[in-house]
Design a protein that fits this description.
The chain is of the alpha+beta class. It contains 4 helices and 9 strands.
């Protein structure tokens, strides 16, 4: 009987989370108020955060993905067009040529939750090297949302993002 309960928990944990646009907007707002607020040491988000476009709207050369954190500051996250399969160093160079950067691991969580439909069900490089070995870097798997690391020489998918400060 315990194995049946464990199987049900595993099945629930693997089921994809589907959110409505209203839930996504609420998620983004709650994320901004709690997680970003803590990162900003309790300071309120700047007023300009309320003038950001709707999630998924075309903006700043890409699609507005919501709010993220970069170097302890709230940023507006924009997913840029284009998708390539490259080793990590080449993916970083490619993202720079697109006018952006590879997304951080936090950015990738936001992208998976909010703009998952813009990605293939594949592994996508993040900008984060592994702390444990210079030969590895982190990726986000856009089938189930898992994050792991892979050899930098492996060819994984890459998307570029632009992080815009919220003023």
């Amino acid at each position: 009987m315990a194995s049946t309960a464990a199987s049900r928990r595993t099945a629930r944990a693997q089921a994809p989370l589907r959110l409505t646009n209203s839930q996504i907007q609420t998620f983004s707002r709650t994320f901004a108020e709690t997680v970003l607020g803590k990162a900003l040491n309790g300071a309120a988000l700047p007023a300009a955060a309320s003038t950001l476009p709707a999630i998924g709207a075309a903006w700043q050369g890409g699609l507005y993905a919501g709010l993220s954190i970069h170097e302890n500051h709230a940023v507006a996250l924009v997913l840029l067009p284009g998708d390539e399969e490259l080793p990590w160093d080449a993916a970083r160079s490619w993202a720079t040529k697109q006018g952006g950067t590879l997304p951080s691991r936090i950015d990738q969580l936001v992208l998976f939750q909010i703009l998952k439909a813009q990605f293939q069900e594949a592994a996508y490089w993040s900008c984060a090297p592994s702390a444990g070995s210079a030969s590895y870097a982190w990726f986000q798997y856009f089938l189930n949302g898992g994050q792991d690391f892979s050899l930098k020489d492996d060819k994984l998918r890459a998307r570029a993002v632009r992080r815009l400060p919220i003023q």
